Amino acid sequence: MTEFDLVIRGGTVATASDTFRSDVGITGGRIVALGSSLTSAKQTIDASGKLVLPGGIDAHCHLDQPRAQGLASGGAIMADNFESGSLSAVFGGTTTIIPFAVQHRGQSVRAAVEDYHRRAGGKAYIDYGFHLIVSDPTQPVLKDELPSLIAEGYASVKVYMTYEAMKLSDRQILDVLDVNQRAGALTMIHAENYECIAWLTEKLEAEGKTEPRYHEDSRPMAVEREATHRAITLSEVAEANLLIVHVSGKDAMEEIRRARARGVKIFAETCPQYLFLSTRDLALPDFLGAKCMCSPPPRDPANQAHVWQGIEDGLFDIFSSDHAPYRFDEGGKLMYGPKISFSKVANGIPGLETRSALLFSEGVMTGRLDLNRFVALNSTNAAKLYGLHPQKGTIAVGADADIAIWDPERKVTITNDMLHHNVDYTPYEGRTLTGWPVTVLSRGQVVCHEGELLGKPGQGQFLKRFRAKKGDRAWT
Ligand code: DUC
Ligand code: ZN
Ligand code: ZN
User: Fold this and answer.
1) Which atom of ligand 1 is closest in space to residue 190's alpha carbon?
2) Which of 56, 122, 285, 342 has CA 20 to 30 A from 202's CA?
3) What distance in angstroms lies between residue 245's CA and the mean position of ligand 2's atoms?
């Protein structure tokens, strides 16, 4: 009888489609057997009473992005690098992250990719890929760099419709959509109307309305709705698939529903901040609202309810953190002082470690979601969309043994002290959740167990990702 490296025994396994009692046999970092009474193992983990789930995939997080003006950061220092970010992720049950390699204007995309490999190399506790961000789609970028990088394993490209130093024109977005579709990359888009935001910001500031709560007034739902509609239209014109990232509320969701009803293939992401934070958090006194400032902003409770509806009914394909970590200090959110206008505050909140447990507790444990839909949102769909499936995102023979063992009854009160990021706050401080990942494996190695770190920085590997192109057979 073959001896497994490790057997996870007695747990309830759930994938995006099935829930079943099974042992999981692991050898050489991969799942090699599913069945009852798997014996003969060098190591055994008792998972009785626990859930054995595919490790989470956080397909939208920002790590170690250099300081620059005209971006979401407004020049603030990003608090997490690939070491602290991936550490935080794995303690929250996430075993794959896909941060961004950002092209700045005037820079080649390849140079950006090389820079991010230097930043990530030897640091990550878990596997990672890179989405490309294109801010300067010159002819060499469109003709040479993008097609060759996509062919090398960068199967997704994000573009922005806002931020001074990032935004592309409609024409440029069409070009990028077209190249991506031909080369086999999924285009992701940040959909907010730049001109509206600039106009509203100027007006609010002239009226002296500068506190963090005015952040939402400067980019209301209509601003996101228009851009979402336009982005979808551009994808129809270019005949290219598109994923709308960080969808925050009803109006944008309606644009997505309408597009799908006329047969357009649009994918959609939302994030914990649109379920768990609201304009009330932005209105906290003493500038504390800045801790919850991100873009698009958290909306009102009615929009939160709509986002929950989209989580439940399948409108959303993926659930990501959009972890964009800035400390609440003079290097981060308070870089220009505590009395500064909302327009100068770094946009972004931390969330790598809390993403999955928030959704599990408030989605699965309340009965809003079944476990399989949770797995799909937390892991499997991102693997499929971004070219990692079936290596990642499922529990199946042949898949990497990236597994999070959850105690579904564990009560955890979130405090920043228990988290492993390098941010000095969490927007979810004091919230009590039910269910937490207690043991997390990456390629069959236990990285953390009951709060103890057993992994090492650098054990995470870079993942090349490929998507099927038009005409490819899906199973090849
Ligand atoms: N908004 C972004 O567009 N990116 C990072 C974080 C944020 O709030
Ligand atoms: Zn964005
Ligand atoms: Zn983002």
Assistant:
1) 3
2) 285
3) 7
Burial category of 208 from C-beta neighbours within 10 Å (exposed 0-12, middle 13-18, buried 19 and up):
exposed
Q: Which helix (H) or strand (E) element contains residue 111?
A: helix 109-120
Whole-angstrom Cα Rg for the chain: 21
Token duo for residue 272: 């914990």
Q: Which ligand minimizes its atom distance to the CA of 295?
A: 1
CB 20 within 8 A of CB 12: yes
Considering only CA atoms, which of 253, 240, 117, 263 is closest in space to residue 186? 240
Q: What is the DSSP string of 240-293?
A: --EEE-S--SHHHHHHHHHHHHTT--EEEEE-THHHH--HHHHT-TTTGGGGG-
Pocket, ligand 1, Cβ cutoff 6 A:
62, 72, 190, 294-295, 322, 324, 347-348
Q: Kindly identify the ligand whose nearest atom is closest to the C-alpha of 60.
A: 3
Token digits of residue 6: 């490790």
Which two tokens mark 97?
């992250």
Give this prediction's pTM. Answer: 0.98
199 token code pair = 């106009």
Residues lining ion ligand 2 (Cβ < 5 A) are 190
For 92, which DSSP code? T
Helix (H) or strand (E) holding 161: none
CA dist., res. 374 & res. 381, Å (int): 10
The pLDDT tens digits for 304-356 are: 999 999 999 999 999 999 999 999 999 999 999 988 999 999 999 999 999 99
Residue 238 belongs to what H/E stretch? helix 221-238
- Residue whose tokens read 């993942």: 463
Give the tokens for residue 421: 């990021």
Which ligand does the CA of 159 lie closest to?
A: 2
